[in-house]
Amino acid sequence: MQSSNGRPRGVGGGPESAAEHHGGHDPALAEAPEAVRYEDPWYDALASGWGELGGAGAPVPLPVAQAGRAQREEAAAADVYLQVQRSAAFQEVRGRYRRFVVPACVVFFGWYVGYVVTATTAPGLMARPVAGAVNVAMVAGLGQFLTTFLLTWAYARHARLRRDRAALELRWDTQELTRGIRGGAS
């Protein structure tokens, strides 16, 4: 039988030739496993033994020395994150976030509910023509879209001007502290 490129199968070293004659497995890959490199980050984790099951169906335990060290590092990292969360800088960033988001959500949700309630309770008002075939309901509906875009723009501007720099500094400090715990490895 011939392949789609006009050559008989198994001739020319194409990708179909090696797997076809060896039960679906390429013997060149089986002989040289170091030549195979998957770019999948989960492959490295599973290849290192993390997440694999032992013969009894239970996870393979880490050696005691590694498990104790890992637990100490996790506890120290957790302490770093708690320390950062309790810091005045973090509280200021969160406060700035809340002072913008809570009022913005209340106003936008009120505007949306007002639109829906008015549309259901006062259909005569919503049917009033504004210009030609355009009525109040259409204008208010388009206003919903407009306020969505305006709110998105205002949020992005507020984040850029009032929170991003402080949050980036906090992130940098946190990474430096956790890197110090892990002995220079991130």
Please explain how this structure is put together.
This protein is an all-alpha fold and 186 residues long. The protein contains 7 helices and 2 strands, in the order H-H-H-H-H-H-E-E-H. Strands 1-2 form a two-stranded antiparallel ribbon. Strand 1 and strand 2 form a beta hairpin. Helix 4 packs across helix 7. About 6% of the residues have low confidence.
Give a nutshell description of this structure.
The protein is mostly helical and 186 residues long. It contains seven helices and two strands, in the order ααααααββα.
What key attributes describe this structure?
2 strands; mainly alpha; about 5% strand; single chain; about 190 residues; two-stranded antiparallel sheet
Helix/strand layout:
Blueprint (H helix, E strand, L loop, with lengths): L14 H6 L6 H5 L9 H7 L16 H23 L1 H34 L1 H4 L2 E3 L2 E2 H46 L5
Gross geometry: elongated
Number of helices: 7
Beta-strand content bin:
under 5%
Order of SSEs: HHHHHHEEH
Low-confidence stretches: 16-20, 43-48
